[in-house]
From TrEMBL:
Protein name: GntR family transcriptional regulator
Statement: the UniProt record of this protein carries the keyword Zinc: no
Organism: Pandoraea apista
SUPFAM superfamilies: GntR ligand-binding domain-like (SSF48008), Winged helix' DNA-binding domain (SSF46785)
Matching PANTHER family: GLUCONATE OPERON TRANSCRIPTIONAL REPRESSOR, TRANSCRIPTIONAL REGULATOR, GNTR FAMILY
An annotated Gene Ontology molecular function: DNA-binding transcription factor activity
Lineage: Bacteria, Pseudomonadati, Pseudomonadota, Betaproteobacteria, Burkholderiales
One Pfam family linked to the record: GntR
Stretches assigned to the HTH gntR-type domain: 6-76
């Protein structure tokens, strides 16, 4: 039985969005329909429909063809201010509702993100995205999830590569461990505090690396 076209389009949109959020598709990169068709193994119509949806959501733009949307570096400070508020509230709600199974899944991701695993940066980005997405799901708030998705896109849309050192990766993953401990204990206040500190740590790494 053939799948409805709207379901196929939704799946294509999700896959392309994921590639953008993990920097597999980078800001300013051209998106060629034929390449996406071959890469995703789907027809032209769902690819075109998915691109139109992603354009409406602000993930891609048309500039003599499709390209991944970028962002003005002057907005970086505002992006992090938004992430602090959203991720702190997300962590607070997750601490109230999270299951032991989700906590175990988070612990497994933390282990994989430890420095020295020889994982490429793209793989670490994906694991980090999965880690925070699980917390968003645990918070179980659709509107907050939408805000989180948008700020996450803005962050990965930064046009310069910011390479975290092993020491910085170790520090951020230590905060992941602290956050998980608070979530397991259902300590809402502690989870909120750690989430705020976690975003501030990332800001302290990213902002000084931006061109002046």
């Amino acid at each position: 039985m053939k799948a409805p076209s709207n379901l196929i389009t939704g799946d294509v949109r999700t896959k392309i969005r994921s590639m953008i959020l993990t920097s597999e598709l980078k800001p300013g990169q051209r998106l060629i329909e034929d390449d996406l068709i071959q890469r995703l193994g789907v027809g032209r119509t769902p690819v075109r429909e998915a691109l139109l949806i992603l354009q409406g959501e602000g993930f891609i733009a048309r500039n003599r063809g499709w390209e991944v949307q970028g962002i003005d570096h002057l907005q970086v400070h505002a992006i992090f201010e938004s992430r602090v508020a959203i991720e702190a509230e997300t962590a607070r709600l997750a601490a109230r509702k999270i299951s032991p199974e989700t906590c175990d899944a988070l612990a497994a991701l933390i282990e994989q993100m430890e420095p020295g695993s020889d994982l490429p940066r793209l793989a670490i980005n994906r694991l980090n995205t999965e880690f925070h997405d699980l917390i968003v799901k645990a918070a179980d708030n659709v509107v907050l999830a939408q805000f989180h998705e948008r700020t996450q896109f803005y962050y990965w849309a930064l046009r310069i590569p910011v390479m975290f050192s092993d020491e910085q990766l170790s520090a951020t993953n230590a905060q992941h461990r602290e956050l998980l401990a608070a979530l397991r204990a259902h300590d809402e206040e502690r989870a909120e505090q750690i989430a705020r500190a976690h975003v501030e740590t990332t800001r302290g790494i990213v902002e000084p690396a931006l061109p002046r």
